[in-house]
Amino acid sequence: MGRLDNKVAVVTGAGSGVGKEHALLLASEGAKVVVNDIGDAANQTAAAINENGGESISHIGSVADWSTGNELVKAALESYGDFHILINNAGILRDAMSFSMNEQEFDEVIAVHLKGHFACARAAAVYWRDQSKKGNHSSRRMIHTTSESGLFGGPAQSNYASAKGGILTLSLTLGRELSKYGVTTNVVAPRARTGLTDYIQSMAAPTSEGDFDVYDPANVSPFVVWLCTDEAQDINGQAFIVGGSGVWWMRSWSHINHIKLDSKRLSISQINELKDELFEGEDTGIPPFSAPKFA
Ligand SMILES: NC(=O)c1ccc[n+]([C@@H]2O[C@H](COP(=O)([O-])OP(=O)(O)OC[C@H]3O[C@@H](n4cnc5c(N)ncnc54)[C@H](O)[C@@H]3O)[C@@H](O)[C@H]2O)c1
């Protein structure tokens, strides 16, 4: 018996990399999986699941198209009768420093990541809200994909970091709207060797046989799949860095300090006088890129 028997999942960008591993592990835990990607790789992941005794169909289409979210929900319902888990994972990079980035590079990344996440989440929300109102109170899951660039602000990634930061906030908004319909929404920032990152030499596969492959994309999937299980029902609106042999729970934008007058607007001079009180004892430079050490 699998932990996700009778569950139906959609995974976007599951033709390769981290998304493919999510799809394979979801299926091995009994979920029926709709595999989305922009090309034939979607068919290959679905075929691999079916050959392994699981149940999967593929959907080829871009998450940047608004209609894809609806198509994915429709495909899940037509093939499997219900839909419980959305893994928003599809992604691209178009890196450039802000002063070199062009409009197309900015728009494409926002479209695939931020709009793509929302288009699929919206389609799921429409169906899940409707089901809840009809008395079908199954638990539902959204797992979104951010990055350490979105958490900390990666240089040469104004487009990607903004989209990934937006996804962190989007998840919170979705959680506030959809919790009452049995939906939890969480975000993971993977770190893995994939088509997106294979240019990074420090992520190369181990050279000695038997050594743990710290950057194997399959290392990310157990936590993502765990978030989909009933045991994770209370985990909602959270964010995690996941990879190697660990999970790092992240939280940001907390209140540090404040200055305030009684029912009066602060003047510039007053702010100048009170600035030491506001910033007392704190570092006011660019916050650190506090990425955890994996190996
Ligand atoms: N690998 C890492 O270390 C890392 C780090 C941070 C975040 N991420 C995020 O993880 C996710 C998966 O990336 P990956 O590393 O597995 O890379 P990957 O390139 O192996 O996988 C991304 C997949 O998304 C697909 N895709 C691209 N555009 C699409 C679109 N418009 N519609 C549908 N599918 C589309 C690609 O074809 C590909 O199969 C991405 O959101 C990425 O930003 C990865």
Structure description:
There is one protein chain. The protein is of the alpha/beta class. It has a single domain, classed as NAD(P)-binding Rossmann-like Domain (Rossmann fold, 3-Layer(aba) Sandwich). 39% of the residues lie in helices and 14% in strands. An 8-stranded mixed beta sheet has the order 3-2-1-4-5-6-7-8, with helices on both faces. β7 and β8 (246-250) form a beta hairpin. The protein starts with 7 loop residues before the first strand and ends in a 16-residue tail after the last helix. 42% of the residues are buried. The model has no long low-confidence stretch (mean pLDDT 97). The site of nicotinamide-adenine-dinucleotide (NAD) has 31 residues, from α1, β2, α4 and β6.
Q: What is the oligomer described by this structure?
A: single chain
Class from secondary-structure proportions? alpha/beta
Distance between the termini: 34 Å
Q: What is the count of structural domains?
A: 1
Shape assignment: globular
Overall pLDDT level = 97
**Largest sheet, strands/sense/barrel:** 8 strands, mixed
CATH architectural group: 3-Layer(aba) Sandwich
For the record, the CATH class is Alpha Beta
Reported by name, the CATH topology is Rossmann fold
Q: Quick one: CATH superfamily?
A: NAD(P)-binding Rossmann-like Domain
Spatial order of the strands forming the largest sheet = 3-2-1-4-5-6-7-8
Gyration radius, in Å:
21 Å
| Poorly predicted sequence stretches spanning 5 or more consecutive residues | none
Strand content: 5-15%
